[in-house]
Design brief:
Elements (H helix, E strand, L loop, with lengths): L6 H16 L3 E6 L6 H9 L4 E5 L5 H16 L9 H11 L5 E6 L4 H4 L2 H13 L5 E7 L2 H9 L11 E4 L5 H11 L5 H11 L3 H10 L4 H8 L9 H10 L3 H12 L5 H6 L7 H10 L3 E4 L12 E4 L2 H11 L2 H5 L3 H31 L2 E11 L2 E12 L4 E7 L8 H14 L5 E7 L5
Parallel strand pairs: 1-4, 1-5, 2-3, 3-4, 10-11
Antiparallel strand pairs: 6-7, 8-9, 9-10
């Protein structure tokens, strides 16, 4: 698959490279979840210039340095001292940068925590001594966001305050998915677009896998993802176990409950026999940014009317079907699991469609607040409204109901909901109403 999007990030990286080469060394951090395209973006920005690319695998420091020695020697075709310390290799590169301009890319930088945490303080000393006298464009990247944030944003850490540019990559927006489909399936349908959004969440590597291996229809995507040796089957584990640590089992249980529709703290607690899980929910939300706390739009911060949702669309899918139905996978019963997903797909994708339209509204940059609204009465959700958007420059609100098919829209019921929110919340706003269906994608 060709390189898509990332124009703004690429421009930022090229500008800071120019400053590093013409002025003095700069440090850029690129982070984001696995498969988001960090390495592709970085290497794209380095094209045409000498580049040393070092991947920090989970190894011992001596073996790592031996590998790096070979890479540096081949890149510069010059004498490189054989070192068993990464700090000494890094110092060599910074000294070399006093006479030569080059990009230095260190991928999975957070792995030094497992190899030798002292590397960070040693690098800080070297960077501070040579930064102004060298011309090295240093780019470090990592997919364990909590560690990367800690390394560079925690005031107690040695590399705090050394970053010139911090980039956190996000998934492809809907207009990029449309561009991909237009290139690889010119006569795609909105059902194809919704399926690609539902299964990948716009994560470039997942999009690439589907583009290269199936016809981009919903059934074909499911058949490719749910099969023997599929790269998708273990992806949730690969993404989260290192991030969440030894207690990942409890976190996985919470995420499975949320993916299955248990979105309030009381519903989630019930799956734990009412064990206290407030701390786990807080960490998933604030430290790991895996779940998001949702309140009715315009409600106060302290309101108890709260729901949780998994922020990452692929992880929603993975916990709802792949993790939940591990018994099918262990029994190599991929056909039945494919049928389970296909049967449930209309219901599940209808829920995802709401997120699709919210994302489109964010991309339009016309709204200052986008959310949903509901009331809790007698433990049942009353007057629930899928989407409420408050316009940025007008005293106006958009209220929308989302249906896969417009024929399922019930105008009379919707009107009652609109009057309820108008009376209780939006009495000062001009209100625009819509039903959004797949025809509006």
């Amino acid at each position: 698959m060709k390189f898509y999007n990332r124009e703004n990030e690429l421009l930022d990286l090229c500008k800071i490279k120019e400053k590093a080469f013409n002025d003095y060394s700069r440090l850029t951090v690129v982070t984001g979840r696995r498969r988001i395209g960090k390495t592709s973006l970085i290497l794209k920005s380095c094209e045409g210039d000498p580049t040393v690319y070092l991947f920090v695998s989970r190894s011992n420091e001596v073996a790592l340095c031996h590998n790096f020695y070979g890479i540096i020697t081949r890149t510069f075709n010059t004498f490189v001292p054989k070192e068993s310390s990464f700090a000494r290799l890094f110092e060599f590169l910074m000294v070399y940068g006093q006479q030569h301009k080059f990009n230095l890319v260190i991928d999975e930088f957070q792995e030094f925590y497992n190899i030798n945490p002292e590397v960070y303080s040693l690098m800080q000393d070297i960077w501070d001594r040579y930064r102004k006298s060298s011309k090295v464009n240093l780019i470090v990247s990592g997919s364990v966001y909590t560690l990367m944030h800690r390394i560079f944003m925690d005031a107690k850490e040695p590399l705090y305050g050394r970053v010139d540019n911090f980039i956190k990559l996000k998934p492809f927006a809907s207009h990029v998915l449309k561009e991909v489909l237009a290139d690889y399936k010119p006569h795609y349908t909105n059902e194809d677009l919704l399926a690609l959004y539902t299964f990948t969440g716009g994560v470039p590597k997942y999009v690439e896998l589907l583009v290269d291996n199936c016809d981009l229809s919903m059934p074909s995507m499911i058949d490719y993802m749910i099969r023997d040796s599929s790269p998708f089957l273990a992806e949730g584990n690969a993404l989260l176990i290192q991030e969440l640590g030894k207690k990942y089992g409890n976190y996985f249980s919470i995420l499975t409950a949320i993916a299955s529709g248990k979105t309030t703290s009381s519903e989630i607690m019930a799956t734990f026999d009412n064990m206290s899980i407030g701390g786990l929910l807080k960490r998933l939300e604030e430290d790991y940014e895996i779940i998001t706390k949702k309140r009715p739009i315009l409600s106060k911060e302290g309101t108890q009317t709260v729901r949780y949702e998994i922020s990452d669309h692929f992880l929603r899918f993975w916990f709802r079907y792949i993790f939940k139905y591990q018994d099918y996978i262990e029994a190599n019963n991929f056909g039945d699991l494919q049928e389970v997903i296909k049967k449930d797909y209309p219901t599940y994708s209808g829920l995802v469609l709401e997120s699709y339209f919210k994302d489109q509204m964010k991309e339009s940059q016309r709204f200052r607040n986008i959310g949903s609204w509901w009331e809790n009465k007698n433990n049942s959700n009353q007057n629930e409204i899928d989407i409420v958007g408050i316009y940025s420059k007008e005293n106006k609100a958009l209220i929308a109901e989302v249906k896969r098919q417009y024929k399922n829209f019930k105008p009379e019921q919707f009107s009652l909901k609109v009057e309820a929110i108008r009376t209780k919340l939006l009495y000062k706003y001009e209100i625009e109403t819509r039903c959004l269906s797949m025809d509006d994608m």
